[in-house]
Amino acid sequence: MRVKEILREILSTSAQTAKTKGELAFESLPVFEIETPKLAEHGDLASNIALVMASQAKRPPRQIASILIENLSPPPGFLAKVEIAGPGFINFFIEDAYWFRVLPEIHQLGPAYGNSDLGRGKRVQVEFVSANPTGPLHIGHGRGAALGDALANLLAATGHQVEREYYINDVGNQMFTLGKSLYYRAKELQGEAVEFPEDGYQGDYMKDLARQYLAEGGSVPEKPEEAALQALGRYAGDRILAGINQDLKDFGVTFDRWFSETSLYEEGWVERAFARLKEAGLVYEREGALWFAASRFGDDKDRVVRRSSGATTYFASDIAYHLQKFERGFDQVVDLWGADHHGYVPRLMAAAQAMSFKDRLRIMLVQLVTLLRQGEPVAMTTRGGTFVTLREVIDEVGKDAARFIFLTRRSDAHLDFDLEVAKQQNAENPVYYVQYAHARLASVFRQPGAEGLEEAEPNQELFRLLSLPEEVDLTKRLAAYPEVVEGAAANLEPHRITYFLTELASQLHSYYRNHRFITEDADLTRARLALVKGVKTVLAHGLGLLGVSAPESM
RNA sequence: GCGCCUGUAGCUCAGCAGGACAGAGCAACGGACUUCUAAUCCGUCGGUCGCAGGUUCGAAUCCUGCCAGGCGCGCCA
Predict the structure, then answer these.
(1) For the segment A433-464, what is each residue's pLDDT rounded down to a tens digit?
(2) CATH of the domain at A504
(3) Alpha helix stretches (DSSP H) within A370-465
(4) Whose CB has fewer CB within 10 Å in chain A, the N or C terminal residue?
(5) What positions of strand B are covered by protein, i.e. any atom < 7 Å from a CB?
(6) What residue numbers bound the domain in which A487 lies?
């Protein structure tokens, strides 16, 4: 059992005991915190229980704290010291020997240390990237990809059954525009003086695609007839999607399912969604169009789902898609969207509420990435064709550095991504700092002096030799790891892992620099190797969650 | 005009669903390699937490109002 849980239990028990003995009066035990204080003098863990009980018990917090401490019955060898501090905090100092219990646990669990069963039995879907197949992925998509993948990893590590999904908008106008763009680029290549349409996709990738199309013997009709353009659009869409798939693979991201919007129509999901809303009286006709009464669920206004032309809207597809998702039985669905779609959230949530799966849907917004090159912003628009692709970023700075940098920010904060900084392999680039810690340890275990010793079953007696403050602190950090993973998963915040790893690496580097692990004393060596083996295991686990490699050497 | 996100050290950002004197990296300055990888370590310098009120025993954190930056407000996707 974890230290925090033990404390919570003995504190609750103490309060109940005091109540029974008539020393404290309270209706029900209020919610209290147990947390790691910022300052070491305040102990390993501290609780505000006395402060939050004060109003109910009608006594000063410090007095309550003192009563609670008197009634405490901790397990033997657990507590070194308990203090009342400040306004009434209870500070707990845990026996060093107790912390070292985590080391055998890590050795035993190996790469599974850090996993938990928090989400056991829960099916979760993470839908991310879902970029329209009208052009290559750009750097903003990269952030979404890194984040979605790390989230999925976190959820999987905490015992959820996770599915990664990519939604393909392959219906409607944009496929037609894509076909039109291909058509005119092909005509240009054939030497015809045509004028490229203003609403076409300007990027050079369309020229490449046209070249490829012609090289494969594709035919270009005389006139831009609709059917021909649709076919060209499908061709281009397929090729672009294949490119996206490849880019994502090289970025370390794979999906369990690529979901086609078209299939929603083929399988009747859109009609099913309409029928369901109709039944509930939430759609109506006006000016020839069909409207969903989104304003009844907190949206600004009602929204069109079928235009007067008879064509359904993107929103209609999305309602149907989410209905389909929940019919698949997910306990939770996480949608990762670019922040430029945030205005769309209320209407989808309105639909979710109307169909009563609102509490199972979580829409996360990924703020935009401002790309810099040597401090200068780079303008990006897909249509205008000026943008830095994810492919370029992977080629220039590498998958590991890119993913790590994307995950050093909260998702709802804007991100400045400087290509030149990301490329540098120095201290400004935290990914190498963490990877280097791992590589250094790998090197230690390759030393002749480490032979055989690392295999030794670590026993508690041995850990008495770990008396340095940094050794105890490092162990405490390792012990905290599973909780950090759970917190990151529960709050959908992968950046917590990034920060944890940077701190762990920092502690390790400092320890490494000041002390030798392989020493004259075989027992001490054994103990220290057991400790740093634990560090190495946790570093590898954390990097794995982020989708960043843990190199054996650098 | 309305809505969402952001505003913490010169720069880039953390701050764990309010807690004890606000943290890290970079930059600047000064040190440390005959020793398991110096992509490292040690030290110094640096902040009215955008501003003003409010709630609380206690606020960077919650509420209100301003200010600044970003994004979005279609029978587009």
Answers:
(1) 999 999 999 999 999 887 776 655 667 788 98
(2) 1.10.730.10
(3) 390-397, 399-406, 419-423, 430-444
(4) N
(5) 2-7, 12-17, 19-27, 32, 35-42, 57, 69-77
(6) 425-546
